[in-house]
Amino acid sequence: MEISLGLFLRLNYLVAITLFLIGLHTMLTHSNLIKKVMGMNIMETGIFLFLVSIGYARQSLAPIVDQGDGVIYANPLVSAIVLTGIVIAVSTTAYTLSMIVKLYERCGTLDVDRLERLRT
Amino acid sequence: MRHVPALLLLLMVAYVLFLTMAEAPAFGVVDVPSRNLVVDRYLDPDPEETGVPNAVARIIFDYRAHDTLGEATVLFVAVGAAAAVLVGRPGPFATRPVTGTDDPILRTVARLVIPFVQVYAVYVITHGHVSPGGGFAGGTILGGSFVLYLFVFGPGRAARKLSPARGEMVEGLTALWYILVGLGGLLLGASFLANAAAGFPLGVPGKLLSGGAIWLIGLGIGLKVAATVANLFLHLAGES
């Protein structure tokens, strides 16, 4: 009972961890490079959800600090960090995808196992 | 089989993560360790310090403006790297280029929606210091409208206006703008990227034209992100 209550009170963290694990699983077990990129993005989504969840306090408002006294605001620091994270995620995804396009043109396949065989 | 070691690694990571989560404070609790005096300082500073109500904009464009300059550089480098990898290739898109669609429903809806999307993007960019949003969010919306245009109408009709060369120019100029605003702080007798300390006019908090350097940098970042999104799409779609 206590365990299930504890899990329920940490539902956001649970979902974030699940997303992270789904992404990691996708990256590890799929041999298609596009699917690996998708897995990486799902992992990043899990991390962003975790960080944003840390910043939330019950009944807190978005950190636009002009809404009167006695109001709790969400933690603005994690929002700023998540913004940085999203920018990095977009950059790595874009660069990875462009490398994958080039690789497909050179080798005609996106399958890691086949690329491995091409190399030897 | 790679599934067995993958599953083992997954189980190990899951074990560590669940143990950590069990120790973490419950979701939504106000009194958590991450909410320390730094956050209080960001949320409730001297009003003369930044002059904007949006605490996230305060952090990314004032207190941690150096960080954001690094972020802008990361975007810049990402587009440059993608361009370096992709430019000048007779790719699969060369034989099957992005030409747009003939579907009248899609074309009509896009024609109706794109102006509103762009006006909303400009609103989000210019009001980033007084409401949620800001340069990064608004720039993404603006870039998304360009991508929608290219998808529906193809690059042919807009090739002159929406070319990678022009996108690169906008990106470079906005990065330069960011650095120039920072150097303005230096020139006015404070540190690099200083805002109120350098004497940028803060205006009345909550009004559109307020916040000094925060507003100026947000404007540049909005244009830069829009150019980045459009540029990445053009490069990946095989335009050069």
Short description:
Chain A has 120 residues and is mainly alpha-helical. Chain A has 5 helices and no strands. Chain B has one domain (49-236).
How would you characterize the overall build of this protein?
The complex is a heterodimer of chains A (120) and B (240). Chain A is mainly alpha-helical and 120 residues long. Chain A has one domain (2-119): Helix Hairpins (Orthogonal Bundle), CATH 1.10.287. In chain A, 75% of the residues lie in helices and 0% in strands. Chain A contains five helices and no strands. In chain A, helix 2 (11-29) runs antiparallel to helix 3 and helix 3 (33-55) packs antiparallel against helix 4 (76-107). The longest helix of chain A is centred in the C-terminal third of the chain and has 32 residues, at 76-107. The N and C termini of chain A lie far apart (56 Å). The mean pLDDT of chain A is 89. Chain B has 240 residues and is mostly helical. Chain B contains eleven helices and no strands. The longest helix of chain B has 24 residues, at 164-187. In chain B, helix 4 (55-63) packs across helix 11 (213-236) and helix 5 runs parallel beside helix 11 (213-236). Chain B has one domain (49-236). Helix content of chain B is 67%, strand content 0%. The radius of gyration of chain B is 22 Å and the shape is globular.
